[in-house]
Structures are given as C-alpha cells and as structure tokens.
Amino acid sequence: MSNPEHHRPWRGILVATALPLRADLSVDHDRYAEHCAWLVANGCDGVVPNGSLGEYQVLTPEERARVVETAVAAIGGERVMPGVAAYGSAEARRWAERAAEAGCASVMLLPPNAYRADERSVLAHYAEVAKAGLPVVAYNNPIDTKVDLVPELLARLHGEGLVHAVKEFSGDVRRAYRIAELAPELDLLIGADDVLLELAVAGAKGWVAGYPNALPRASAELYRAALAGDLTTALPLYRQLHPLLRWDSKTEFVQAIKLSMDVVGRYGGPVRPPRVPLLPEQEAAVRAATEKAVAAGLA
C-alpha cells in the first residue's frame, strides 16, 4: 500500500517512535522494526525515528544511524522522516545526507539548540541542512530549546525554500492562523498530542505523534475525525484520551508513553540516563489513565 501523501510524505500521522531498549539498555532493533510495522498496520502513515521521544540524544552515532535503517527496512523510506537535530549544522547536514542514502523522503530539524540562536543563525542552519537535498520539516519546540520559530520566522524559512512544513509544539494554537496567513503553502503539523483537536480544526495537515505508540487505532480514529470536522466523533474521543495525551507535553513524556505501551501489552521498557523512572505517583497516574482507556475499548 503506497502512502497517498507520497509527494508530501510528512502529511498524515507520523509517529515519533519510542525506542525499545533491553534491560541492559542496549537497542532492540528487531523489536523496533516490529513496532514500526505494527504502527503502520494499525492506521498510522509513518514514523519519525530519532525524535526526542526516540532518545536520540543518548544514542551513539552507530545506534542512531541503524535506527533509521531499521525503520526503512521495516516500512519503506517513503514513510520514514528521521530527526536530524544536532548541535552543529555540519553534523545535522550529515544526518540528513545519511537519511537520503537510507532512502528516506524527508527529515525533521530543530533550530540550533546549543544556545539561544538569533534569526541569522537559524536561517543559516536550515540553509546548510537543506543542501542535503531532502525536504526539511522544521520542529518548533521553544519549551525545550530556547529558540522560538515564530510565524514570521517560519514564513521567511519557507519563503527561502528551506522548510516545507513545521511540527508546532509551542502549544499556542493561535499561531496556526497566523502561519496560514503568512505562509499559506507551509504545512502545519500537530506537534503536541494535547492540542490535536484544536490544530486539526485550524487546518493542520499532519500529526507528529506520541501517544499512538501505545494507542494507534484510537489515535488514528481521533485524528481522522478531527481533520474531517466530525466533532461528534472527535470530541468525546478527545476528552477520553486527553488525560493521556497531555503527558506528551510533560518533561516525563518518554517514560509515560513507554509505560502506557507496557500497560496495553506492547513493549515500552526502560529509558536511558539521564532520564530516570517515573515517581510512584506519576506512574500511578499514567497507569490509571491508560487502564481507563483500555477498559473503554480504546487499545
């Protein structure tokens, strides 16, 4: 089955995949391949390996490269949009070139995030990575990076041909309308699970998603209903899922999503340091919300 969005492969539900680690914290590539295939079989359009949910910052370069190759082998490069963030522009460009060599169709790139970059360095960073030749999706995460890709800056990046879409994680849903005014051809992608409905209604063209790692079918149903403007279906489902979806925007999102995966009978498993396990009360809250979703038939 080919992705109907092949000319704009960043559209649809692209799951920022959690990375299965064994008890000794080594990467389980076989399990990861199976997870990618399972997500596509359950209504998702593709995957984003080496996003923040994939713990890319704590992978060796060898591990990081193999994760991308594993995803491509499992579901085809058209469906794989790796994160290529790095502290140096040259390094990020090399990751984009590796993605092209692996057969990927697009990449996702944070702005410079080792320091509070100014507009000139943001533009130079995206220009450098665009030289790799793959379409670049910007990732705006001012909460974690201290660099805010405001609508005016996104419009400039898009106008110069450097980015084709943006994963919007600011949580500020007003920006959807400003981005659409300033850069109507720039695709808005939902970047935080807990503003999914608001951004879908505002015209988003895709979702770089966290919680579908645990609940792909219900998440896909919610997304497609929201995109179609079918609020009769979407709103009750969104209310049901929101106690889980909001964990995607918390500091402990990786641990929470992996725990939810464990609860629904997938393999979530441990995280690598410096992340630490959830506190008992956090674990209890995630577990209870996940079990409630399972009891409601959403798993």
UniProtKB/TrEMBL annotation:
This is Dihydrodipicolinate synthase. The keyword DNA repair does not apply. Pyruvate binds at residue 208. GO terms for molecular function: 4-hydroxy-tetrahydrodipicolinate synthase activity. Pfam families: DHDPS (PF00701). The keyword NAD does not apply. Belongs to the DapA family. SUPFAM superfamilies: Aldolase (SSF51569). The active site is at 139 (proton donor/acceptor), 167 (schiff-base intermediate with substrate). It comes from Streptomyces corchorusii (Streptomyces chibaensis). Keywords: Lyase.
